[in-house]
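Friendly challenge for the regulars: who can give me the structure tokens for this chain first? No prize, just bragging rights.
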Amino acid sequence: MCRGFPPREGARPLSDHPDGTAYPGGAMSRPAATLTTAQVAGLLGVKVETVYAYVSRGLLEPVRRGGPGGSLFDAAAVQALRGGLSRPARRATGDPVEVRTQLTRIEGDRLSYRGRDAVELSRTASFEEVCALLWATDAAQAREPGESSRATLERLRQALPPRTGVLDRLKHAVLVAGATDPGRHDRRPEAVVQAGERSQGFMLAGLGGPPGGSVAEALAAGLGAPDVADVEAALVLLADHDMAVSTTALRVAVSGGADLYSALLAALATADSPLHAMAPATAVGWVREALDDPHAVLGQALASDRPPIGFGHRVYQHVDPRAEELYRRVTARADRAVTDAVDLVRGELLERRGWPMTVDLPLALWTVVEGLPRDAGPALFATARTAGWTAHALEELEEPGMRFRLTGIYTGER
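First reply, four minutes later:
Bragging rights claimed.
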């Protein structure tokens, strides 16, 4: 497998210097009061890749994208961003600036759960063992719904519109799990763990997974995935990822007194976005285009200031370890033409723009290669993340209630 190359020392994006020549006076020919990408990076004191990240997050908007002379940015907007980045955040007394956790550590390009490397765990541990590790319990097992609850879920599945999205179906499954649990408001740690196991079981039933077996076996059967080992590995790799927005939403809900089922609904609602759990489904179309004509797709990607779906990460600068491990597994059974096409695109995007492949790309590729339903990636993501969400709920129960209180800075009419 061909891996992408790290950015060369001192390399500039091609959009800044398309022909490699200097402009008269050492500056590029451009409208007044605009800055090149390299100049923006110098003014803000960041890497060029960070400027691209600011663009992808909507913090900067180019006045001209790519083309001759490269991208240009309004100097006043850059100065305003510079002031915002240097200004200390205002907050109310007692508001948390950061959330302390003993669960997940992301350091450089490594991911670990309670000090255990996540990639290594994906090769040696079951998803249930990782749940037990995150929940600090001796064992964990999804709790299957009883006959009455399973019948309720089936009636609900039949009542939903045929094209109901996978995360909506999982939300309904969690809703039924909570509504039929007489102990849903029990906030003791052991009760929260049981609620997490119960939620997993109902989610699997909501996806059509057969009763019995492990989470990976039930999910593979529900999705029609041929290799249970790959599903198991993906579940482990996606079990938690520190303070993602969905995890933050869950912690806020728990801090406000919500039971785990309601907090999981908050997390699922936040994750139900093409920028989060739905990203693998969004990337499926892009992957198909890339496999059909990788050079054309690469050209389109390099002409943009924003990374295509499946590339560019806010946390990892060079390698998303989850993506590399899943990509290794997926391409082990893929045709050479498939791996060549993807390797070309991901290698060039990393070298030229510093956009590493994210976990969304191999999930989308897995969907295409195995002929799985388009929403297989989001289904796998949400099922896996119940492990981390439940673990964060357990941690949040040890904190003072109602501790999340942001301070709004009023900018309206006075």
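Residues 285 and 364 are 9 Å apart (CA to CA). The two ends are 61 Å apart (CA to CA). Your move, everyone else.
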